[in-house]
Amino acid sequence: MIQLSLNDVACSGCIGKIKRKIKRYNGIEKVRILAGSGRIEIDYNEAIIETEEINSTIHKLVIRTFD
């Protein structure tokens, strides 16, 4: 499990979009938004996906959300 900060994403709707999209990736098991904290918690299978890949994916999703 990792927790990532989404401080650049203020809108709960945008955070919801990111949550729905990240859940589609292979190896992601569960995604929770930590309400009021600007953070997202991700349970994942380390044998399938690495932390660096999750961080990169989240960064890309944040950028796409605001394009």
Automatic annotation (TrEMBL):
PROSITE patterns named in the record: HMA_2
CDD domains: HMA
Record Gene3D superfamilies: 3.30.70.100
Domain of life of the organism encoding this protein: Bacteria
Pfam families: HMA
Domain HMA span(s) in chain numbering: 1-66
Protein's UniProt name: Heavy-metal-associated domain-containing protein
Naturally occurring in which organism (per UniProt): Neobacillus driksii
